[in-house]
Structure formats: structure tokens, C-alpha cells
Known about the structure:
Immunoglobulin-like; 5-stranded mixed β-sheet; elongated
Amino acid sequence: MTCGTSVGTFSDAWSHETPTEPPEPNSSKDLYAAIGSSVELTCRDGTSEGLEWRQNGSILVSGPVLHLQNTSLKDEGIYTCYSANGDPVKTVHLKLGYAPSPPEVKCWAPSYPLNALCSWTQSPDPILPTHYITTYWHVDDQQAPSVRSCQRLREQDRQCVLEDEELFSLIPYLVNITAVNSLGSATTILPVLPDRIVKPDPPVNVKATALPGNKVHVQWSPPPTWPDPENFSLKYNVHFYWGTANLASTMGPYEMDSMVWSGLVAGRTYRIRVSAMDAMGYGQSSEWSDPVTITLTKS
């Protein structure tokens, strides 16, 4: 389930001001606006006479109002309004980007049953500094939900950790990822059942050894991120391929950490990789391991 809300907020730099208003003190401010929008910068010095807007020393317009139409990233920068006597009246640092779109969230459990990971992307990227609120709770009609934080290792990470999930539950967790920046906010709420998002990391230490009779012995180790392979065992598929991608064979599943394949062709080079899956069939298979290569010598 995905739901998103977006609310933009803009500075009073868009409002018109009359020449009779009192002068504003020399000030500097950040102004955030959406790419493609029209931006109006105004300043006052008790009178509109002699005011001008400059950027990088170049005069952009003579007068108290600067209009920027259909803004793009090249319009970002520092704009300064000067009085008739050359004093700076107002400085605006224009920063452009997008209000957040609802994050695209996916969750998987490479360390089942200890924890799960959730990551997210946004399209388009907001560009502007964006803060993420990351929480989750267990849906239970019998009591009020206890909202927990989905922990991130670093503030800039777009990934967080769900901990202490209830195993074999038929009631989902709801994962909330809310993106907030100066132009608005957007939220995605994703229902998650821990048993359905199991996805181990690929096996490691894959090795292939040639045996007499055109056989190959393949062995591997469980992914180190899988915390308890004895009580939550894995099964494995082994993929052999040679020549083009169409010349391939997948063997398995195996509940051991090795296998022997016979009937291979002497002189041929084989590439071998292994994937892992929960032995009970929960979730989905890991990605394939990095391939190892072996060439069977001709006798």
C-alpha cells in the first residue's frame, strides 16, 4: 500500500511590496523553489528608485523586482539587491529542487530471523536536502500499535534496519518512510510479513575442483550474514554455464554445502555460481554468487 502527500512551502520573497514600506535591513536568506517554477525576488529601501538586482557582479535588472521564469538548476546561486548608493539591501541564496515524491520502498531479510532491511529511492531525486522519517509498527487490532524507529547507521543512508520481528506472524508490520524537505513531504507505508521477505545474501567461498572422469566437485559456505544456518538451514542451487548464456544448466536444490557434477566435457571451460534460499521455502533466492571458472583438461 502506498500513499503520498506533497505540500510545498515558499518564502515571502514572492510577495509584492510597495515603495512606501519602510526599508528592510540588510539580510541574507535561503530561498527554496521547485525546478520549473517562476520565482519573484523583491526588495525595498524606502523607495524603489535606484534599486537593482545583481548576480556575480552583473546587473540583472534595475528595479525592486526580479522575475525568474521556468527556473532550472543554472538559476541557482546568490542574488543581491543594491540601493542607489551601492549598499547591499538584501541577499538571497536561491536553491532549486523538487518536493519529495512518495519513496519507492523495498524490504528484504538477509539475516532472518534477527532483522530485515528496508531501502528506498525517489524519482525524481529531490536534489534539495531531504530528511527521512523511518518507523514501523505491528498491526494488531487488540492493542494500540507500538511505533518503533527503523534505525539508520548514517543520516544520509537510504536504508534502515527492522529488528525483533515476530516470526511466522500472519499479521503484517507497516513500514513508514516519509521524505521531508523545504518544498513539502511525501509518505509511503509498506505492509511487510517477515517470512515473505526472506532473501539471503549469496553464498561465499565458492570453489571448484576437477575430479577424474570429467567430474567437478563444487563447494561453498553459507553467507556470513545468515545468523543461524543450523536452526534456519539453507538450500542451494548450482548454476553451470559455458560458451554463450544459452548453454547452461542449473542443479539442485542441495541441502549440503557441496556437490559433484559428472558427465562434463574435457577441454571445456565452465563458469559456476551458487545461490541460497531458506530451506523451508520462505521468501526468495539470493542473487547468484560471483562465478568461479574451471577448465577440464583433456587426457
